[in-house]
Amino acid sequence: MQQSGLWLTIVSCILFMALVAYISYKKTKGSTSDSAGYFLAGRGLTGTVIAGSLLLTNLSAEQLVGLNGQAFRTNLTNMAWEVTAAFAIVLLALYLLPKYMNANITTLPEFLSKRFDEGVRRYTVILFMLGYVFVTIPSMLYSGALAVLKLFDIPSLLNLSYTQSVWLIIWVIGIIGAIYAIFGGLKAVAVSDTINGIGLLIVGAIVPILGIISLGNGEFFSGVQTLTTENPEKLNAIGGPNDSVPFGTIFSGLLFANMFYWATNQYVIQRTLGAGSLKEGQKGVIFSGFFKLLVPFFMMIPGVIAFHQYGGELQSVDLAYPTLVANVLPSYMNGFFLAVLLGAVLSSFNSLLNSASTMFAFDIYKTSINKNATDQQMIRISKWVGTVIALATFFISPMLLNAPNGLWDLIRKFTGFFNIPIITIVLMGVLTKKIPALAAKSVVIFHVFAYYLMVWGFEQLFGLTVSIHFIHIYGILFATELAIMLIIGFVKPRETAYEMPHNPSVEMTPWKYAMPTSIFLFACVGQTYIVFSPVGVAYTEGIVSSYFWPATGALAALTVVCMLFSLRSWNEKYMKSTSSTSSLKQKGKNLKEQWGTSSSSDGVYSSSQEQ
């Protein structure tokens, strides 16, 4: 890149990021003076902001680099991690979110402390913090550094070694992200995420389009033909036994891994807990599911294009996307791309940092160190902890330089240490009333040792190879841990049955169209798999097979029938809910007028536990 082009890129990037920072500042000014404002954005987030924030928090450089690298190396089977998240998203929106909001919590460990005890709270905080500090945050910083490194050839520009360049970029990105998270709180993170999310969608569409045009030597449709007829197996998402994600794993461990991420992961549910009402929370969550369906097109097709363009020329599969971008993106867009890329990295980084410091403040500091902590003390300790965590991850991130099979597989394997026990505990906590805290603690300890042994330990310690895919191991351990909790609950149950709390601080009327929209989302997931299968564009004897349109038509007909049925049944439940809410509010108003005081019914909303 020429010196003039470099300065244009840097200046345009800084201007865009400064604009995002200014808008975030204006939107959040004066809103972080108390704990609700700092940690939960004042419980005033709308569905659009929640969806935008979840989009950018989830879709970071980790996906841009990692998923495209896997598509370059194998095929589209890794899209299962993203597309099938719709099932967990609907579980959160329709079932778990009403329970979380009824309990009026700030963190997931706080919810578990109410259901079990403080010991379970500490166990889950430790799992979350270790996962964030040693796996999730470092991977996001490192993947962002890789993309910047390749796109702008930092070693040559600054006369540094490859390793030194990675260290430098990680520190620069990390410091900027830490400023957002530590000083702005959740609302600043959410607002900046929404703006950057729009940019990510624009860039996400431009890169594959330009890549296809390049593949077709200037002709878009010629590029599409090349993509779908030459090596069509690269477009197959129906994984076999030797693929990264065998198709069967979708219905075993992958299902529960996605449940953990979307239904119990602190930095996801913290956005929904900041919603102004249950309706806005449900909208935000479900809308984010539709964004996830764009992943194959935006974050995997470029990897396949890179395979056609560069073959075996790349030193690492994780260089597929950065190389394609460097070759097809016009130079005048480099600054915008860099700003969006950094925005995606910063979003995920500052979201994790904000959530980790929130858990420390609420689940460790306020419960064990200073039980009478004021809002200002909570915010101050959160900022200090965020700073320490950020510095720790700056040193850990560069250690990912030698990931052998690409960044994506490595991250997924290490995430297995904490995702399954947490989702097991949460599900059993809400589905049962008599299972004690001992069961939850036993599962955490059992899982850490069992997972290590099955994935690495037996081979490292005893020379025995476990030939079970690690995602299937997720499912096996989930079933085992479920059984452990049920057995302990049967042998040594709680003395008193647990009752879910009902103390919401926001309006709890559900979104009227939550159910039909969820059904439509499921249909879109099914259609995505039809498209990227041997029935669709992975068909080896043409663009699509003769079964493609009949399968699409049958799915569309089934979807319409289910949506019409759900509209009728859900509307009946919705009307009862709103009627009950109006009745309670009127009673509260009458009591208030009669006695001149605030009634206990005032502000009480219809129970959404049955919605």
Automatic annotation (TrEMBL):
Q: Does Transmembrane helix count among this protein's keywords?
A: yes
Q: What is its main location?
A: membrane
Stored PROSITE patterns: NA_SOLUT_SYMP_3
Family (UniProt): Belongs to the sodium:solute symporter (SSF) (TC 2.A.21) family.
Name under which the protein is recorded: Solute:sodium symporter family transporter
Q: Which stretches does UniProt call biased (Low complexity)? A: 598-611
User: Which Gene3D superfamilies does the record match to this protein?
Assistant: Sodium/glucose cotransporter (1.20.1730.10)
Transmembrane intervals: 6-25, 37-59, 79-97, 123-145, 165-183, 195-215, 245-264, 285-311, 331-353, 381-401, 413-431, 438-458, 470-492, 513-535, 547-567
Instruction: Report which superkingdom the organism of origin falls in.
Output: Bacteria
